[in-house]
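Exercise 7. Predict the joint structure of the components listed below.
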Amino acid sequence: MDKRTTAAAVVAELRDGMTIGIGGWGSRRKPMALVREILRSPLKDLTLVSYGGPDVGLLCKAGKVKTVVYGFVSLDSIPLEPHFRAARQAGSIEAKELDEGMLQWGLYAAALRLPFLPTRAGLGTDVMTVNPHIATVRSPYADGEELVAMPAIHLDVALIHMNRADVRGNGQFLGPDPYFDDLFCMAATRRFMSCEKIVDTADLTKAGSFHTLKINRTMVDGVIETPNGAHFTECPPDYDRDEAFQKEYAATARDPAAWDAFARRYLACESEEAYQEAVKREAVRSR
Amino acid sequence: MSAFTRAEVCTVAVADAFRGDGEILASSFGTVPAIGARLARLTFEPDLLMTDGIASLVADVRPVSGDAPGEPVVEGWLPFRAVFDLLWNGRRHVVMIASQIDRYGNHNFACIGDHARPKAQLLGMRGAPGNTISHTTSYWIPNHSRKTFVEKVDVVSGVGYDRAAKLGKQTSRFHEVRFVISNLGVFDFGGPDHAMRLVSVHPGVGVDEVVENTGFALAIEGDVPDTRAPSDEELRIIRETLDPAGARDNEVPS
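Solution:
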């Protein structure tokens, strides 16, 4: 089956109020081309589930978000995501803040179609008070230990970005960490994978050993080729983070005029191609 | 004995926090903890494991500043998923930074103010809840003041001893907050009911200065000694091998 589609077709499937899981980690291998397509849409009231980076910051800043489920939201080289901070401090989003491992457990429970998975993480902390929907469970065995019953986090849609993929939905990471992208896909009803490059299935193992084929085609409904599509987050070995661009993005949180200029220059582009052209043009200009 | 800086005393105090840990993952956040963990590994705790901060376990000790020589020797793969497994497995001692800490070691770096609408959103919970209930934790606080050592933390991201006690022995059996190292002194939780106790003051710091800058009553027993001075060998390793560019001085000015 050929699962190739477009970012526009993916976003046309989304509805206001949906729960959307976004793969990657911080400012690393994020499906930013798909995020930018959401920014161009009228979607609103989304619930985001993410090891958060600029995906969360941009969507919050654009007023697309009602709730964020997260362990952190960071730009890595800039530890605090400034637009997410602004949204939190303005009280404009609902925060379901979890321990990082609890977030994995919630996705894993949904992936395995279980109601919850037990863990000690969260006990004794304010994770339990700021998430009153999370209950505890007692071990039925001799130890009788009380544990957090981390509820399954079901996603309407998962969006991930890989280095390589084939048209059938097999996906390959070539960087140091697969993150939790497979769990995001398995926890979701509809699953979309953007990638740097679509290659023949037989060529996948030429780029990396079969250990890098973390995403198999049972996990994916649509494949979108988006070269440089994780920009400005890193996507090694294809490219590093665009630190200059990230710095410019972060600085816009302190200055409404700078945000307006940034949004006009990059986010008002009518397509991903136009965005990539604008990034190239501005990079040449500032050199 | 050579002259030494406050940052170097703090570095050695962090290294000493890893004493006896053996073959576990030593994780550290902040510049001084990064140097301190490496110092422990190069001296009295040679079996400690360390990552490159990305997804590799590195077998050689890499400098924190300056030019690193060649490529690291990789001894293992530790993506985030494996980090979570390892930390729930318990073979880890983490040194985390605290934005706030209270007398029982409850820790906050999530946000300042009301969590529903914070005055300042900080890091979020990150891994602190799972870390503190699963393995040994120490804290590094480079700016000791009444704003960091507080009567009550705004949000609890890391479990302290009073909360661990409420969870019961079974659930809290892996909980240990070992040391707090600040720019003024070293603290443990050997006070009454595991309250924070002043273990030592850094050379040149008075007990009154520590008390003055702490927002709760510390347990203080008898004459408080000075934090131990770095040895000549430790100073050489810090200055020549681990931090030749002096990054430590940016975190703890002399």
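Discussion. Chain A has a mean pLDDT of 97.
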